[in-house]
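User: Just a sanity check before I run the rest of the batch. Below are the structure tokens for the first item. I only need the designed sequence back.
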């Protein structure tokens, strides 16, 4: 802790089993590039969210990112929420202010910036695979873009589809497919969402929020069917820059 204590500006990531995380490497390089030698970024790998209080009680912490599985569960631990984060019901960025800890969601910005250039006129409806905290930000953006959506889940609630219900008619109608589930991430590289890939073609976009590996089995299947594919790396880069902007804004 003595080494960390020398830094006047501490940032970090709150999550569980996050040694693989993109954020620490990204911000460490950013600080080096900007010559911010008094800035550090560290992982706060919490076995339970009850440990969060011990994180925010430490000195010199100026901002945090939040990842799975705590994006929704962390809300009661915060002093306030940004308007969009309140609507979404999930947070991935925390700013330390005079009013206390304020939660934001920059996943929306990251997803919108990375998806928008791929969209064509026929992309009017989306299948959203998974119903966790990440999917809430994705659905928020789809609404902003005027796209209809349908949740797909292993354990569907009312109004949601199960994977076993998906057939050719769905893929004629829903030509954007967004994987918000962790299926296919490292180290389970051959796993993929159980959709009928044979119904995909060049009119489809497959967007995977996963970035490790850069090409998941889900995206590989899409490429084989000539679909447009995109991993989650640009989204992460956009959302990280938005978080940095929030941390450095007045207020």
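Assistant: Here's the designed sequence for the first item:
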């Amino acid at each position: 802790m003595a080494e960390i204590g020398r830094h006047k500006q501490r940032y970090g990531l709150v999550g569980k089993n996050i040694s693989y995380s993109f954020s620490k490497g990204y911000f460490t390089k950013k600080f080096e590039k900007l010559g911010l030698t008094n800035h550090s970024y560290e992982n706060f790998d919490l076995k339970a969210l009850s440990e969060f209080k011990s994180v925010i009680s430490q000195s010199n912490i100026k901002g945090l990112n939040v990842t799975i599985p705590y994006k929704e569960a962390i809300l009661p631990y915060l002093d306030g929420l940004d308007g969009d984060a309140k609507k979404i019901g999930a947070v991935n960025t925390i700013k330390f202010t005079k009013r206390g800890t304020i939660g934001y969601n920059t996943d929306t910005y990251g997803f919108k910036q990375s998806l928008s250039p791929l969209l064509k006129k026929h992309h009017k409806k989306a299948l959203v695979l998974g119903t966790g905290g990440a999917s809430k930000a994705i659905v928020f953006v789809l609404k902003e873009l005027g796209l209809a959506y349908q949740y797909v889940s292993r354990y569907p609630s009312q109004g949601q589809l199960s994977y076993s219900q998906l057939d050719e008619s769905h893929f004629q109608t829903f030509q954007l497919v967004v994987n918000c589930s962790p299926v296919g991430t490292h180290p389970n590289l051959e796993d993929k969402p159980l959709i009928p890939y044979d119904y995909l073609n060049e009119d489809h976009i497959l967007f995977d929020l996963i970035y490790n590996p850069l090409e998941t089995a889900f995206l590989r299947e899409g490429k084989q069917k000539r679909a447009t594919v995109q991993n989650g790396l640009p989204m992460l880069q956009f959302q990280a820059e938005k978080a940095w902007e929030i941390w450095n804004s007045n207020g």
